[in-house]
Amino acid sequence: MSVLDQNIIDLAPPRISEAGVADYIALLKPRVMSLVVFTALVGLLIAPGHVHPVLAITSILCIAVGGGASGALNMWYEGDIDALMTRTQNRPIPRGRVTPAEALTFGLVLAFFSVMTLGILVNWLAAGLLAFTIFFYVVVYTMWLKRWTAQNIVIGGAAGALPPVVAWAAATGSLSMEPIWLFLITFFWTPPHFWALALFRNDDYTRAGVPMLPVVAGPDATRLQILLYTIVLVAVAVAPWGFGHFSAIYGVSSLLLGGGMMWLAIEVYRHRTGSAALRATRNLFKFSILYLFALYAVLLLEVIAQGLAKVLW
Question: Is the pTM of this model over 0.85?
Fold first, then answer.
């Protein structure tokens, strides 16, 4: 290349971003964010005492933005992996709609303002927990665990389990056993949920070199781990009722939903090959989403019912 050609390149105008609003929304991982918002909302509403509506809305928005920041920073770091996987190759960075630098800046700005806003307007315990959640998801899970160990989902699941704890802290300025139970339920729910996905997306993870459990230990070992973690999950989900923290309505609901999870986990363990195995893993993955949503929904409906009862009586 001649000096003239190099000078022409150096003087060329900077690349104009092709990203639109939809691309930046995609960076936030809206489906994951919706789960974060819902679990946080339940954690906020079941907390004792009264929270001013403005502070409640501020808390949920900050947790949602913090979750979105985690998603954007995750996509920034995993652009190379996303490009190799069918499930993620249409994300904004692999498609060239958003540059890694843009995603990094976007994520850092959202993370900073979500934590600072929560701290200044609500309380610093909640802000500290939100900052830790973002750090754990981006640094511990995304940058370290995901490419290093098959236990990435197990340990990294702590980040996804923290939103109701953050919300409880925002409402009360303290912690208690109720949000800890919610944390444990989501924490033990994460491995069977994601390992079911990993079983029928095994080719994706193999091609990308991500050491998910099916890639490292094989499908049969993964099926056993799914069953074992499901047993623990069902026991942990029922435990708050036994210890008197949640109501009998919740307890019965957790038993019924847990029975569904157990049945589907057993089906995954039994069916090892062919269409039956694929169907079993897909069914467990789909039901696991309903399972977690329904458990939290029962708690939310109880709060709403109690509020209506106070108004009517």
Answer: yes
